[in-house]
TrEMBL record:
PANTHER family: FIBRINOGEN/TENASCIN/ANGIOPOEITIN. Residues 54-100, 106-241 form the Fibrinogen C-terminal domain. InterPro entries: Fibrinogen-like_C, Fibrinogen_a/b/g_C_1, Fibrinogen_a/b/g_C_dom, Fibrinogen_C-term_domain, Fibrinogen_CS. GO terms for cellular component: extracellular space. This is Fibrinogen C-terminal domain-containing protein. Pfam families: Fibrinogen_C. It comes from Mytilus coruscus.
Length: 241
């Protein structure tokens, strides 16, 4: 991007909200394909304006740093301000700005983010009849560092799924090959999951995907909502304020 040129939209109406990027080949500002409206308006001069480089060079630390009205999609995020990873941003659910904590978003990145800001974690789930529910662990959701075995902490709860994460507060992260839980046996092995097990848990969203109606331990579950295995789940974080 040329040092003197950057792009932004003037949003005269909510429906006209958009964001842009500078296309070097054409030398023009173009509307971001993930934003709304999806087509460029006829009169560019009324839509585009120059903004300071400090904004154009901005590297979002999480999805809440993206411009207003950005559509959901995969974006380049810099959790530690330096290293870039591609993460999915949910810009639709409950006001948007959610950084989806799956795939490349491991516990190290959750630690980097949650030590810097005060986050809400939102757990989402769907059963095989396509009913949905959520649980938000409010205020100061934090994943500690690797040395602490990624101990999780948080306060508060609200949601429709019940507080299935309640007894995970203060727990270390257990995987199938690392028993950090409080059970005399190994929750991660017995349940074939990776979670902040206590002894063991009312919830685990990283279990093995099983057919509709499956019960037992080795499933994806949130037992304050459903006893059977879940069809789809999500984990996403967003800063408070
Ligand atoms: Ca154990």
């Amino acid at each position: 991007m040329p040092s003197s040129v950057a792009c932004a939209c003037v949003c005269s109406m909510v429906q006209q909200c958009c964001s842009t990027s500078y296309e070097t080949a054409s030398g023009r500002c173009i509307l971001n394909k993930r934003t709304s409206p999806e087509t460029e308006t006829a009169d560019n001069s009324n839509v585009m304006m120059k903004i300071p480089d400090s904004i154009s060079n901005h590297q979002p630390k999480d999805c809440s740093d993206l411009p207003p009205c950005t559509k959901s999609g995969v974006f380049e995020i810099y959790p530690d301000g330096t290293n870039k990873i591609d993460l999915y941003c949910d810009m639709d659910t409950a006001g948007g700005g959610w950084t989806v904590a799956v795939g490349p978003m491991g516990n190290d990145n959750l630690h980097i983010l949650t030590k810097a800001r005060n986050y809400v974690m939102r757990f989402e789930m769907q059963d095989f009849e396509n009913n949905t529910a959520y649980a938000e662990e409010y205020q100061s959701f934090r994943v500690n560092n690797e040395a602490s075995k990624y101990t999780v902490s948080f306060t508060g709860y609200m949601g429709t799924a019940g507080n299935g994460f309640e007894n995970n507060n203060g727990m270390k992260f257990t995987t199938r090959d690392r028993d950090n839980d409080l059970h005399m046996y190994h929750c991660g092995l017995g349940q074939q999951g990776a979670w902040w097990y206590n002894a063991c848990s009312q919830s685990t969203l990283n279990g093995i995907y099983k057919p509709e109606g499956t019960t037992g331990a080795k499933i994806i579950y949130w037992k304050t909502w459903r006893n059977t295995t879940l069809k789809a789940t999500g984990m996403k974080i967003r800063p408070i304020n």
